[in-house]
Amino acid sequence: MPVLTDSDYRPPLLFKNRHFNTIFPVLFRRVSGIAYRRERIDTPDGDFLDLDWAGEGRSERLVLALHGMEGSSERHYIRGMLRAFVNEGWDGAALNFRGCSGASNRLPRAYHIGETGDLDFIIGHLRALRRYHEIALTGFSLGGNVVLKYLGEQGADLAPEIKKAVVFSVPCDVTSSEREIAKWHNRLYVKRFLQTLNAKMLHKAALYPDQIRREAPLPRSLREFDERFTAPLHGFAGAEDYWARNSSLPYLPNIAIPTLMVNALDDSFLSPECYPYALAEQHPNFFLETPQYGGHVGFVTFGAGGMYWSEQRALGFVLKGR
Prior knowledge:
Elements: E1 3-4, H1 18-28, E2 37-42, E3 48-54, E4 61-66, H2 76-86, E5 91-96, H3 117-128, E6 134-140, H4 142-154, E7 162-168, H5 174-181, H6 187-207, H7 222-233, H8 239-246, E8 259-262, H9 277-282, E9 286-289, H10 309-320
Parallel strand pairs: 1-9, 4-5, 4-6, 6-7, 7-8, 8-9
Antiparallel strand pairs: 2-3, 3-5
Helix pairs in contact: 2-10, 7-8
């Protein structure tokens, strides 16, 4: 039932090119009118998470946003989403994954595409404030997969304050998406990811030489990086094991709140498995929207008070249920 095939995203002419839609906002979008207050929260395992707050801090409604691979709260899509909700009277918070806030985290481990423990810890922290009666979750790419996996893991036991979720450009079947990302037309994106991923691991290897192998050559693909670093640091047998165990797709049937996933059909990161139409047709809470255009975390629009279509779409789903 909740398959939305009549998406109203209409990109400007040049942005019908998927790579242009993906790259333009990364290089040129600047989101003003949003200021952060940082809270550093110590985790039970001796590490920390940085949470960036936006808004007046007086609302009873909160949107919590999760960024993508090697992103942070400073990414345009996070700042834009929080600004959109803050302008509607909500508070906003952006979770920086471990090692992504501008400061290296304390432990050898970092974050990964299915790490839901930190999200659960932060939600517990937010609930303990006893301030928010309504919490909406939003995530992009890797962060969207974390949100979906978490919702499925929690199922009917999800915290009652969490009412809705909206995610964009989600590689919900990680194994097939990783193979898609490895194709030649994505080589510039992979190179960009690996620049910071490898730099972080070299830094960690100097601090923890007994746990992290520092050897040449450095990984030249995400598969090599996950095989050498991500999998062993986080308790997986290898890259394939890591991908299979952290895909959100098997968890989607257990989602118990209205949740919208928006995956553009021209997203060069996504495989056919990342468009689970059959599941959405049978699921009362999982909504799937597949615009023809949008690229990967693109959805560029002009006007509308500086909002991108993705922000307008999230507001419509969370505030109006459609």
